[in-house]
Design brief:
The protein is α/β, with parallel strands linked by helices. It folds into four domains: 99 residues, Orthogonal Bundle (Fumarate Reductase Iron-sulfur Protein, Chain B, domain 2), CATH 1.10.1060.10; 53 residues, no CATH class; 126 residues, Glutathione S-transferase Yfyf (Class Pi), Chain A, domain 2 (Up-down Bundle), CATH 1.20.1050.140; 111 residues, Rossmann fold (3-Layer(aba) Sandwich), CATH 3.40.50. The chain contains 24 helices and nine strands. The strands form two sheets. The chain has a five-stranded mixed sheet. A four-stranded parallel sheet has the order 7-6-8-9. Helix 23 links the parallel strand 8 and strand 9. Helix 22 packs across helix 23. The chain is globular and about 65 Å long. Bound molecules: iron/sulfur cluster (2 copies). The site of one iron/sulfur cluster (SF4) has 14 residues, from helix 2, helix 3 and helix 5. The site of one iron/sulfur cluster has 14 residues, from helix 3 and helix 5.
Length: 427
């Protein structure tokens, strides 16, 4: 598709959503950035108007316009509240493509998302160095001296928690009891590098329940590209995933990070050039499930028992799980299977925590401001665990909890389940 036709398509998407918006303002109280500023330009309704003005040529792209649009977390709380069913995500994604075409997309953001999506070996090396750096005695000195800020890496340094884990497991696992089915895991680009314990836990629980597990070679889900104005690479990554999973004889594809699962579930909305590619994307999307929901729906063998856990867990509801997959009840149901565990919602679950992918680096101040009330609530009466189903939120919350020195561990619900099972996976 030529750049001109691409621009027309995105202008059309923006115009359609703008026309659908009845300007009622019901979305405003649900928008985290509007709540921080009470500025119409930082609200969904304001951004819709700005996007249409820019797309129709009434408003030239400027730094100020860019900032209002960049501050959006794509949390989609506005979509959930909207009575007119405005597809806000489609509008903001198209708007960011148009901004990228006039080269207003931040260069550092492009480099970071391509590092994870395209250069996983380089990302691995960088993260190994980051882990060593976190343990180094130089780090507190460098943080105090301001040298990290001078180098432009202060936000990146603060965004990464000390406790991350890698997954270097096998590509397939046999079930530990009678076979009930075969599933594939979608781990994406970030979980194996920064949240390996969750991937390992997913394998352990699934095999204990009788599922064979396959983890094929796969790409980044493309969410960072899609929401960052890079629609071409988003489509390329989606097609690579659709082809990789299509070859597998599996009953379901399970996402361990709700942000990736939400993206895969909407692959059918992408517009590849051919009908065959569209069908291929749709087939993957139709097989994708959130792992919490899948485990709740599965029949558990009578031989599987969970050990009691005398502790309190607060459930954090990622925006992707709430506002896109609409599956926020699933982690509660799953965790309630653990005897003696007290399961309760984390205060402020209706508001984004700020851990929206690269947002924690590119809009670090807003991300930290949004996280602050959640940390304050935890500090009042720290639970033993916070359970979240999205890797981005987990990293962001972990970093804040470590900064405050709270005795709370951030885990995926499936990780707590696996610990209570105590079953080893058979590669
Ligand atoms: S997606 Fe979230 S941050 Fe963006 S306008 Fe909607 S509610 Fe506000
Ligand atoms: S709730 Fe929907 S229709 Fe109303 S202002 Fe917000 S986006 Fe527009």
């Amino acid at each position: 598709m030529s750049p001109g036709i691409r621009a027309l398509t995105h202008q059309d998407t923006i115009a359609r959503q703008f026309d659908r918006c009845v300007k009622c303002g019901l979305c405003l109280p649900h928008c985290p950035t509007y709540n921080l500023t009470l500025d119409e330009s930082e609200s969904p309704r304001g951004r819709i108007a700005l996007a249409q003005a820019m797309a129709s040529g009434q408003l030239a792209p400027s730094e100020r316009l860019q900032a209002h649009l960049d501050h959006c977390l794509v949390c989609r709380a506005c979509e959930r509240a909207c009575p007119a069913e405005v597809s806000y995500a489609e509008l903001i994604d198209s708007t960011r493509v148009l901004l990228a075409q006039v080269d207003r997309a931040p260069r550092r953001e492009r480099q970071l998302r391509n590092l994870f999506a395209r250069h996983s070996r380089a990302a691995r090396s960088l993260l190994s160095m980051a882990r060593a750096w976190h343990r180094s005695a130089l780090r507190p000195v460098a943080r105090r001296s301001g040298v990290l800020r001078a180098l432009g890496v202060e936000n990146l340094d603060a965004a990464l928690p000390e406790s991350t884990s890698r997954f270097d497991g096998a590509p397939s696992y046999r079930p530990s009891v009678d076979v009930r089915g075969e599933v594939a895991l979608f781990t994406g680009c970030t979980s194996p590098l920064l949240d390996g314990e969750t991937v390992q836990a997913a394998v352990e629980v699934l095999t204990a329940l009788g599922f064979g597990v396959v983890i094929p070679e796969q790409s980044c889900c493309g969410a960072m590209h899609q929401h960052g104005g890079d629609d071409r690479n988003a489509l390329e990554l989606a097609l690579a995933n659709a082809r990789a999973f299509e070859l597998l004889q599996v009953d379901a594809v399970l996402g361990v990070a709700s942000g990736c699962t939400a993206t895969l579930s909407e692959y059918h909305k992408l517009e590849p050039p051919s009908a065959e590619e569209r069908q291929c994307l749709g087939r993957l999307g139709a097989k994708v499930h959130d792992i919490n929901a899948f485990l709740n729906a599965a029949e558990w063998p009578q031989s599987v028992h969970l050990a009691p856990l005398r502790a309190r867990v607060l459930v954090h509801e990622p925006c992707s799980l709430r506002n896109v997959l609409r599956a926020e009840a699933e982690p509660y149901a799953l965790l309630q299977r653990i005897p003696e565990l007290t399961v309760a919602p984390m205060p402020g679950n209706n508001r984004c925590c700020g851990g929206a992918g690269l947002y924690i680096v590119t809009q670090a101040d807003i991300a930290r401001t949004l996280r602050q009330p959640k940390l304050a609530a935890l500090a009042e009466h720290p639970p033993e665990y916070v359970a979240t189903s999205n890797v981005g939120c987990a990293l962001h919350l972990k970093a804040g909890i470590e900064e405050l020195g709270l005795p709370t561990e951030v885990v995926h619900p499936v990780t707590l389940l696996a610990r209570q099972l105590g079953v080893a996976a058979h590669a």
